[in-house]
């Protein structure tokens, strides 16, 4: 499941031609991706996903990596994000995925549209850099990033330099934040409503 970079950019340009109709732009991009995915055997599709996302940091879907890298500061960002979910009555079940994993963030945005959109806007620079990287890789997954970015206010940046300028780096975290628990979601599991009143005797 691979297109050349020029073809992926052409698809993205076509999606952007819908101008002020972000919902239509997003829908068109998702439909094109779904059609491409359906045309491939499952094993080929799985291999393609691994080759795109699991071998290169420059295409990682973990959003705080783009702002914090592998630093102590990232632990603070992950803890803050987990608290943000809990403040809305949602908590991820025990699992492998971190709270900054893009599919988890998108799920949160579906459950809490206002704050979820605000969260995506905060990471707009990372989203746009992922979009550029996927387009260069010639993968149809670039269409999904086109769809996400199309739903956010304002035009997408025309260059990587403009996208990098959108990234806001938080203050460095202290050393006590190293080694924080890795909260996350198991693939396919929804964010769970937090218990309104934990029962006594069962442990926090």
TrEMBL record:
Q: Which Pfam families match?
A: Nitrate_red_del
Gene3D superfamilies xref list = TorD-like (1.10.3480.10)
**Single biological process term from Gene Ontology:** nitrate assimilation
Matching entries from InterPro entries are given as: DMSO/NO3_reduct_chaperone, NO3_reductase_chaperone_NarJ, TorD-like_sf
Instruction: State the residue spans of region: Disordered.
Output: 156-204
This entry's Gene Ontology molecular function terms read: metallochaperone activity; unfolded protein binding
Biased composition of type Low complexity is found at: 179-194
Q: Which NCBIfam families match?
A: narJ
What is the protein name for this chain? Answer: Nitrate reductase molybdenum cofactor assembly chaperone
What is the species listed in this Swiss-Prot or TrEMBL entry? Answer: Nonomuraea phyllanthi
Organism placement in taxonomy: Bacteria, Bacillati, Actinomycetota, Actinomycetes, Streptosporangiales
Q: Which gene encodes it?
A: narJ
